[in-house]
Amino acid sequence: MTSPIDSKLAELGITLPTPAPPLANYVPVVRTGNLLFVSGQVSVDGAGKIMTGKLGAGVDIDTGRQAARLCAINILAQVKAVVGDLDKVVRVVKLVAFVNSTPDFVDQAKVVNGCSDLFVEILGDKGRHARSAVGIAALPFDAAVEVDAIVEVA
């Protein structure tokens, strides 16, 4: 039987990728008690193609939102790899999002809504969270967006 969250992912046409292994000296997820601390997930699709570029210098808000959405998908993939079933998610507690942007770009929050909106669409009220959206001069691999998360699980 398919879980409600897996059904929602299928309805949205989302296939969770196999989580990428770390590319530096860190672990993708640390679990302490019922909290998962998910390391920053960049805007990379299931084929390994990274959405790159700088908001305010060639990357528009809609493209940035799509990049942030990919970060949400990758966070969910990391969570599922640890707990096995996304229906064990109690709550997305906190996101910290970094947007590769020019100094004069001030719409980081609009970009990060691509991530936040997907969590709410998939998880309902369990996907509502506290959040920071930060503009930054550069990200690894020139990724457009990177998001880390704290997720409570059963």
TrEMBL record:
SUPFAM superfamilies: YjgF-like (SSF55298). InterPro entries: Endoribo_LPSP/chorism_mut-like, RutC-like_sf. It comes from the Bacteria. Pfam families: YjgF_endoribonc (PF14588). Residues 7-144 form the Endoribonuclease L-PSP/chorismate mutase-like domain. This is RidA family protein.
